[in-house]
Every structure is written in C-alpha cells, then in structure tokens.
C-alpha cells in the first residue's frame, strides 16, 4: 500500500484509491486543457487547489447527480474530456438515464469515477450499495470498465481513461490488495499456473483468491480492466485446464457470465461465477463482514472452488 503524510501530524497514512485518483487528476487538470472535473459535493475538498487555478474546468453542481452526468455530457459535446465523480449508486444507478441519453444517445464519451463499490460504506446501509453497476454498463455499447486492485494502479488507469475515445467507468474501492500489479493493456495477467481450472479475478479480490487457491492446482489470472474482458486470452488459458473457468468479481455475481458464454459458443465449458449475491443482506456491519457473508473472503471462495472441482 502507498502512503501519504498526514498534514496535521506528519504521520504516514495509507493512500486510498480515491486519494491517488484525486492527486493524479489534479495534475492532469493543470497539464491537459481538455480535462474537466464535475463533482456533486462528494470529494469536493480534494480539488480545492485545482479549482482555484481552473474554476472553469472544476465544477461542483451540488447534490444533483442527474445534473452531474448531464453536465459532463455537455462538456463532452464541447470537446472536453469530462471526469464525473460520486458514490457508485448515485453516479450509475440514480443517473443512468443521463448516461443513456447524454452520452450514448448523443454519441459522446467521458469518464465516470465512482467510490463506494458494492458495500464499502456498509454502515451507510443499502442506499450506498452498488453491486449492480457494472451489469448496468453492460447494457450500453462501447463502455470500458476499469477496476483497480490497489491505489498504485489508479494513475496509469486514469491516464488510459483520459486518452481513450470510448466512455470509461472507473470503480474505486476501499478494499484493496496488498501489492499493485502492472497490467499494461487489457490482457489477463497470469500469476499462477495449474491444471484443474482457470480462475479469473477482478481488482481488489486478488489476494483473497490467491489465499483461497494456495494449495489447489489452478491457474490464477488477474485483470483490472474487465471490460473489455480478454476472452481470447481466457480461451487460451482455459484450453489447458479443460475449459473449467471460475470468474471472481467484486460486484454482482454472474455479471461476466454472458461474455464467457459468448466467447465459448463454439465449445463446451464449465463456469463458476463468484461475486456479490443477489439477496439483500439487511445487516449493516462492516465491509469485511459483508465480504464474508457474500462468501468473498478467502474461506468462502475456497469452499466454492473446491466444490466446483469436486474436492469438497
């Protein structure tokens, strides 16, 4: 994990994905005149410096998420590369009509950056949960999805998002892996090779998967760019493991099943999808507790993979 100095104590504090994103985006605002930041109060304090120097390109619309995305769409029409930001359920679910109309229908593109992920602020209850966000983006064509697993992965992904021609959804989380992993393109990064199955893991669940499969004979591949999913690489890897595939994702279980099915329409395969369950958990404890209750901790993942392999 990267660190930053606390301005009050000079103590080193963990650098979160949001910290890394805001710091790098501030640099981009200073150096790239196309970049505009649109906020809805959330994280506004992180852009005070940038707003002083570029008040025309750092805009806070207040707690109006539909206006947030609509404003970003208008800036895209004007030739800017807008980055709109809020909590995932407000940015994606609440303002999805604006994503559909002000980006897709208008033929524009921008970058939407969320925090909160599926249940990061579990204490905030169901209003702040968004496990369905990536599934929603699968319904609009052409959007890329970036899901970093560590704060150090955020700046290069942001650079790619700003330089892209397509719309990009970047999903930041407080959940993270111990170490970053460099993925220079959209290819799957193979971290372990085995014979019984290919396990593809997205973003911050990598450490849990590595622990869960430590003594299993499986291939483990990592991605922080699940859209587009590297289905060509997946087919090549899974051919060596009997076309047995496990998809582990930090959002709604089964979100990528349609892509795997599409990639395998010409040959038989077995697929186990592991992700956030569809049943609402009405116990608003901590994110770690929700992870455990959804079976996304190492023990839960291990149990399901072992059953899939016929080892339980």
From TrEMBL:
Residues 15-176 form the Transketolase-like pyrimidine-binding domain. Its EC number is 2.2.1.1. SUPFAM superfamilies: Thiamin diphosphate-binding fold (THDP-binding) (SSF52518), TK C-terminal domain-like (SSF52922). It comes from the Bacteria. Keywords: Transferase. Pfam families: Transket_pyr, Transketolase_C. This is Transketolase. SMART domains: Transket_pyr. One of its GO terms (molecular function) is transketolase activity. PANTHER family: PYRUVATE DEHYDROGENASE E1 COMPONENT, TRANSKETOLASE-LIKE PYRIMIDINE-BINDING DOMAIN-CONTAINING PROTEIN. InterPro entries: PDH/Transketolase, THDP-binding, Transketo_C/PFOR_II, Transketolase-like_Pyr-bd, Transketolase_C. It comes from Glycomyces lechevalierae.
